[in-house]
Amino acid sequence: MAQRILPAIAAGLFAASLATSVLAQAPQTPPYATTKVEGTDNVYIFRYANHQSMFIVTKAGVIATDPISLRRPAAKAYIEEIRKITQAPIKYVIYSHAHYDHIAGGKPFKDLGATFIAHKNAKARIVELKPVDVVVPDEVVDRQKTINLGGTTLELIYVGRNHSDSTLVMRLPKEKIIFTVDWIPLAAIQFREMADTYIPDLEEGLKKVIAMDWNMLIAGHPGPGGRQTGNKDDARNQLAYLQDLSAAVKKAVSEGKSYADAEKEIKLPKYEKWGGYEAFLQMNIERYYDFHNRGI
Ligand SMILES: [Zn+2]
User: Fold this and answer.
1) Which of 143, 147, 180, 262 has the fewest CB atoms within 10 Å, i.e. the most exposed one?
2) Whole-number Å distance between alpha carbons of 289 and 274
3) Closest C-alpha to 55, from 80, 82, 75, 77
4) Taking a C-beta distance cutoff of 8 angstroms, is the pair 15, 66 a contact?
5) What is the CA radius of gyration of the chain?
6) CA–centroid distance, residue 106 to ligand 1 (Å)
7) Distance (Å) from CA 256 to ligand 1 centroid
8) Separation of 22 CA from ligand 1 center, angstroms?
9) pLDDT category, 28, cuts 50, 70, 90?
10) How crowded is residue 81: how many other Cβ atoms within 10 Å of its Cβ?
């Protein structure tokens, strides 16, 4: 009995010490914060825990994006933060893609009369799966849609499938900023086993985004050190990572290696300092193994 209980106690202590170390670092990082994007008059990032969302303030109203409120009251804080800057109406909420951790909890925005916009595949999925607490989009984007509000132009561009089949690239042409979520992480490898991700479309999409005119990327999650924005090098580096990963896994498959051996043997030291390297590299390898081994 003691043998069965002891590991549980050890695991509990380990979890407790992890929690303590997280708490010990916590005071520097408030649960949410709003940052004005450097070099702009009216573009902001709202961060809540480890998710972030772009919003734009104009005299004619506010364009908000992802509510990032899955099982937490982020939207309330988001609206309060907007209200510290402007009393102008919140005209739009635009979803980056269909994943609930980014789009849940928009009801407080809906109650204020905002129009919700998403890619048409996001709306189809939301209507089909009826996730709890996700506002159904009022309008959809197919290939491209442009919003003009109070002197700001925002393009909503679909470059094809990547991290989902509903990801938009939101581009501010005057400011040369893009906001696009989850598929161009800042100095990080891809999340877990790359669920919902389309290969090789992901790499093709990156080439399209790199060819577009912009200087700053606002990502859906801060990178290492809390960095909230990136640039084209982040997109180029992500493409290089995927190409290096793909080539290494393709070689392992061609040599007849098993999943287990490929996951154990493939190392990509160029990226070992990136977020997620230790935790997710084997899962990223598995995703590419399936692609090269079975075409799935
Ligand atoms: Zn996602």
Assistant:
1) 143
2) 21
3) 82
4) no
5) 21
6) 17
7) 32
8) 24
9) low
10) 17
For the chain, percent helix, then strand, then coil, each to nearest 5? 40, 20, 40
Position 152, amino acid: T
Q: Strand 90-94 vs strand 61-64: parallel, antiparallel, or unpaired?
A: parallel
Tokens of 281: 């590299």
pLDDT at 29: 77
Using one digit for the tens of pLDDT, what is the confidence trace for 178-230? 999 999 999 999 999 999 999 999 999 999 999 999 999 999 999 999 999 99
CA of 265 to the centre of ligand 1 (A): 28
Q: How far is the CA of 3 from the centre of ligand 1 (A)?
A: 41
* Average pLDDT of the chain to the nearest whole number: 92
For residue 92, give Cα distances in angstroms to 13, 134, 265. 46, 15, 48
Q: Give the range among 20-24, 115-119, 244-248 with minimum mean pLDDT.
A: 20-24
**How far, in Å, from the CA of 134 to the mean position of ligand 1?**
15
